Amino acid sequence: MRLRLTCLLTAVLFLLSGLFSVCGALAAGETFKDIRGHWAEKVMLEMNAYDIVHGYPGGEFRPNNNVTLLEAVVMILNTLGLNEKAGQVDLSGLQFHPSLTWGKGHLALAVEKGMLTRQGLPQIDNRRLASRVEVAALVCLALGLTPDSSYVTFFDTSEIPEKYRGYVGAVVKHNIMRGMPGNMFSPDEPVTRAQLCATLSRLIDQKLVPPPAPMNLVVGRIASIDVDKRKVVLRNLEGEKTVYFPADKSVFTASGTTTPESLSTGDRLKCITDGQNNVRYASLVDGSPSIKTTVEGVVVSFARGSRGYSLTLENNEGDRLTYPVEDDARLIRAGKEIDASGLVENDYVEIGLDGNDRIVRIEVYPPERISGTVVEVERDALTLRRQGEETEYEVSPRVQVTRNFIRGMSYGELKRGDRVEVVVMNKTIFQINLLSDVLTGQSGMVSRVHSKAVYLYVGDEEKRYELDERVEVIKDGRLVSLDKLRRGDYVNFEVDSRGYLITIEVLDEEDGDFEGTLKYLEFYPTPWITIVTSGGLELEYEVSKSAGVLRDGDRINLSDIIPGSQVGIRVEDGRVTEIEVLDDQNLTVKCRVSSINRERLRVTLEINGRYFTYSLAPQVTILDRNGKPVSLEDVEGYQVEVRLKDGEINSITII
């Protein structure tokens, strides 16, 4: 009788060891003859490697066996690493079903965690199967997830009891449980051992819970392999981790298995190891996880928590976004792969997200400090000219603007022609400093060139400029050496506060767009135009007979342009092909007063042989050569200097 009882107890313990990591369990790393090719083969072996579930005597796993509610509770708590704690729970005051001979500590712990109710314990016998909605509720309550019924969108949602819908929605939201074929949840269907292994493995893979001690989950790319020592070094965000393969251990692939000797550097490997870094399970993972979307922004925080790494960034719209990071996400700075210590606050990054909105790649763009001249200012873009080329940059909403690195100013104060130094990260500007002591928009003609100085004609005066040691000389849109400058070259240049030349750009007089003040306009025998740039450089060109002349978008005659007006011209092959009047309402011109209409207070001026009539401003100033006021009649027939403001004569001075 005693012998029969001993055999019976032994059989029971063997049966239990097929489910859980309890006394008498078979060694992890078992091979099972009934799971080869099963859809859940890998996750069943993973759960076995974690010592959470084992096989049955005879090498069977029995993947399609239904799981009882008691077994489900035990497996969930063991996955949470609470097996030892379950053996220490006080059972006093609790009532259990008479058929229960094991697992009472786990049920009592489930009551403590709110997974089960004290009143419901007596109804749980050792045969009651766990339904899918019950497993959903147990997992949700064990993890403390917030119920969320909005994710319950199955065709059979109406069959899910109302009290379970929030639990189902929570586990679906976190990708812990999924629907059945045909978008069904099948709430009352029993859960199999394979299905429960798949559910619980996701808890660990998604870092909702850590692997039960002393096991570890390591995912990384192979950095090196020592075949003789069966040693593999993996690299991930943590740095490098060394794992050791037992002699009989295989590696799972997408199509079967391979040996550790067949692995290659760069392969992406998932390993479950014990406390001595010995591999209990290994599988190759897709080497290049697909990136579904990308997001750019400034790093607000990057840290490792209980669920792994997470990254919070502020995007270019000012929104703060937080994403989980895969342990082996590739972190790239300046083209080189680095570990997590190389990513710091305020780095500008582009992150790549997979289909589950997890970060699989982080590209760090180090700040680049560049200088240039403002060409165009827009609300969210700034165009700079540097080294002879114009480049448009995005401007961050959080851009900081200063003048001479000290005084703060608004972005809207920037204007065309300003010399600035900017901090750029991936074509986006985050800092702008206005260099107010840099003179821009200067023009001249090269007179002499020396190794440390250049002589330029600016207007009618020859000036000597020292050269900055980093002076940029630009010709034909590219950087050239100083010896490419030639006497007679027309140039735009920039000067710093010391009076040193920092940029010299040779103008191509034969082609290009130029702006300036119209000085002369001749018509016979062929039309010629002379303009003076803002830097005092005179440019003279023949005007093509087919040249278009515009003012405010309307076509006008060439003779309608008033000398002294601000104009823009387009030069092609040395001839003007287009003229646009930019401003002829505010200018100063030397001319002769031809006639006066006293009744209408209008004056006709002769300017370079042509006649233009203007009204007098209400507060017009009329002065003689000595600066004394005179009457309007006193200036008729005289050579005068006239100032126009908003298209009216604002002052007349006899010269």
SSE topology sketch:
Blueprint: H1 2-17, H2 41-49, H3 69-79, H4 83-86, H5 104-112, H6 132-143, H7 162-173, H8 193-205, E1 216-226, E2 231-236, E3 239-244, E4 251-252, E5 257-258, E6 268-273, E7 279-285, E8 293-305, E9 308-315, E10 320-333, E11 336-337, E12 348-353, E13 359-365, E14 368-377, E15 381-386, E16 389-403, E17 407-408, E18 419-425, E19 428-434, E20 439-449, E21 453-458, E22 461-475, E23 478-480, E24 490-495, E25 500-506, E26 512-522, E27 528-532, E28 538-551, E29 554-555, E30 566-572, E31 575-583, E32 587-597, E33 602-607, E34 610-623, E35 639-645, E36 648-654
Parallel strand pairs: 10-13, 16-19, 22-25, 28-31, 34-36
Antiparallel strand pairs: 1-2, 1-6, 2-3, 4-5, 6-7, 8-9, 8-12, 9-10, 10-11, 12-13, 14-15, 14-18, 15-16, 16-17, 18-19, 20-21, 20-24, 21-22, 22-23, 24-25, 26-27, 26-30, 27-28, 28-29, 30-31, 32-33, 32-35, 33-34, 35-36
Helix pairs in contact: 2-8, 3-5, 3-6, 3-8, 6-7
List keywords for this structure.
8 helices; 13% helix; five-stranded mixed β-barrel; mainly beta; elongated; 655 residues; 36 strands; five-stranded antiparallel β-sheet; disordered N terminus
**Low-confidence runs:** 1-28
Classification by helices and strands:
mainly beta
What is the first-to-last residue Cα distance?
A: 138 Å
| Beta-strand segment tally | 36
Compute the gyration radius: what is it? 41 Å
Shape: elongated
Oligomeric category: single chain
- Counting DSSP H or I runs of 4 or more residues, the number of helices is 8
Strand content: 35-45%
Query: What does the average pLDDT come to?
Result: 88
Helix percentage range:
10-25%
